[in-house]
Amino acid sequence: MHLGFNMISLYSFGLFVEKYLFTQSHLFGHSGATMYILLYFLGLIVSAIPDYFYYKNYSGYRALGASGAVCAVIFSGIMLYPKLPIGIIFLPFEIPGYIFGVIFIGISIWLGRRGGDNIGHRAHISGAIFGILFTIIAAKAFSGFDVVKSFLDQVLNR
Q1: Which residues partner with 94 through β-bridges?
Q2: Does residue 124 or residue 52 have the better pLDDT?
Q3: 83, exposed or middle or buried, with CB in 10 Å at 0-12, 13-18, 19+?
Q4: In 54, 79, 129, 151, which residue has its Cα 20 to 30 A from 102's Cα atom?
Q5: Distance CA 156, CA 108 (A)
Q6: Alpha helix ranges (H) inside the chain
Q7: Where does the pLDDT of residue 9 fall: very low under 50, low under 70, confident under 90, or very high at 90 and above?
Q8: Which region, left, alpha or beta, applies to residue 91 given φ > 0 means left and ψ of -120 to 50 means alpha?
């Protein structure tokens, strides 16, 4: 079930991030697809590192999945378009992406501390952080675009 939710999220956000934000917005131009692939695969690797070190001496821990990479993509999209309306299965209304992000991180921290569900909540958090940092750094380095300023301008309606 968790994998299915990840794949639906990746499809929904991935298409948006790669096509509309990375390529058509000219943030990375013709390199948009390459940057998207880098975001995903580096997010996959980086998001696994905290769990690896946390559980390295616990032989019973098993984790497999792409949650961290999916979170990297989602949070990249949130950084670039913070007011993106996001629907949650259990709510009959949509909320802005930046509010969803805060709620998601809070729930991931709580569930990670609680434990016992075999879901890599730390991977969610580290993937989200990676997605944010990757987007900020890559956009500044490759296009001179200030993601943080744009994010604040959009959220604060400047």
Answers
A1: 87
A2: 124
A3: middle
A4: 54
A5: 26
A6: 2-15, 32-55, 67-80, 97-114, 121-143, 147-156
A7: confident
A8: beta
Q: Name the token pair of 96.
A: 């802005």
From the CB of residue 49, how many other CB atoms can be counted at a distance below 10 Å?
14
What pTM did the predictor assign?
A: 0.86
Average pLDDT of span 16-21: 76
The answer to whether 153 touches 147, Cβ cutoff 8 Å, is: no
Measured CA to CA, the distance from residue 11 to residue 97 in angstroms comes to 16
Please state the domain extents for the chain.
2-55+65-156
Tokens representing residue 18 in the block: 């790669």
> What is the distance between the alpha carbons of residues 73 and 3, in angstroms, rounded to a whole number?
15
DSSP assignment, residue 18?
I
- Three-state DSSP class for residue 28: coil
Looking at residue 131, what is its pLDDT?
A: 95
Token readout for 60 is 């019973």
87 forms beta bridges with 94
Alpha carbons 114 and 50: distance in angstroms, whole number: 17
User: How far apart are the C-alpha atoms of 19 and 28, rounded to whole Å?
Assistant: 11
